[in-house]
Design goal:
The structure holds two protein chains of two kinds. In chain A, 0% of the residues lie in helices and 50% in strands. Chain A has no helices and twelve strands. In chain A, strands 2, 5, 6, 10, 11 and 12 form a six-stranded mixed beta sheet that branches. Chain A has a four-stranded antiparallel beta sheet with strand order 3-9-8-7, with no helix packed on it. Chain A has a two-stranded antiparallel sheet with strand order 1-4. In chain A, a hairpin with a 5-residue loop joins strand 7 (56-58) and strand 8 (64-68). By secondary structure, chain B is an all-beta fold. The chains are: A mainly beta, B mainly beta. The interface between A and B is medium-sized, with 23 and 29 residues.
């Protein structure tokens, strides 16, 4: 069975500082990994995805994530936080790419941006 | 592209009644649609997977007679919560996948409140 662990339910950074949101996964097969962002009372927006191509994945809004098989990690980073980045972030895993099977989500990390 | 809509966005119903939530893929055909449930400040949990023209596959612990899912066409899936109870109050999110590799496109969600 696949699972996702997001370390830190809340992360607070200052505007302009580095954002680091941690995600570790477990999967019996090479996984497909995703990061989604959710603003209050809204659905999910895909930030980026790892699909076994390049291990460093660049996404929207300046976010990127690096797949590290040896560490079973897929941490999300952004060099400089912006106030508009404040939201809930979810890491998700799929064995099949997500198109034909549901995703398994982590518990989420609430990102707080301090002015 | 790849837009999914949900209707209604918010619904309040009385205990014991049934409520239907619609999920539509607006600009693509979703062979597979997924229904997730999200409790306040928690992650998304997959409830069921539906394929057009066939019965939905429910996750363990989800009552199929309570959460009726119909996927009548490649652009429409419905979730009916029957005999709703206050504990059914939640945020329900659908997504469409299937022919789109590696991605699910999420709807904006429906906030159900059962009084």
């Amino acid at each position: 069975a696949q699972s996702v662990t997001q370390l830190g339910s809340h992360v607070s950074v200052s505007e302009g500082a580095l954002v680091l949101l941690r995600c570790n996964y477990s999967s019996s097969v090479p996984p497909y990994l995703f990061w989604y962002v959710q603003y209050p009372n809204q659905g999910l927006q895909l930030l980026l995805k790892y699909t076994s191509a390049a291990t460093l994945v660049k996404g929207i809004n300046g976010f990127e994530a690096e797949f590290k098989k040896s560490e079973t990690s897929f941490h999300l980073t952004k060099p400089s936080a912006h106030m508009s980045d404040a939201a809930e972030y979810f890491c998700a895993v799929s064995d099949s790419g997500g198109g034909a099977d549901g995703l398994t989500f982590g518990k989420g990390t609430h990102l707080i941006i301090q002015p | 592209g790849a837009v999914v809509s949900q209707h209604p966005s918010r619904v309040i119903c009385k205990s014991g009644t049934s409520v239907k939530i619609e999920c539509r893929s607006l600009d693509f055909q979703a062979t597979t649609m997924f229904w997730y449930r999200q409790f306040p400040k928690q992650s998304l949990m997959l409830m069921a997977t539906s394929n057009e023209g066939s019965k939905a596959t429910y996750e363990q612990g989800v009552e199929k007679d309570k959460f009726l899912i119909n996927h009548a066409s490649l652009t429409l899936s419905t979730l009916t919560v029957t005999s709703a109870h206050p504990e059914d109050s939640s945020f329900y999110i659908c997504s469409g996948g299937g022919n789109l590799p590696y991605e699910q496109y999420f709807g904006p969600g429906t906030r159900l409140t059962v009084t």
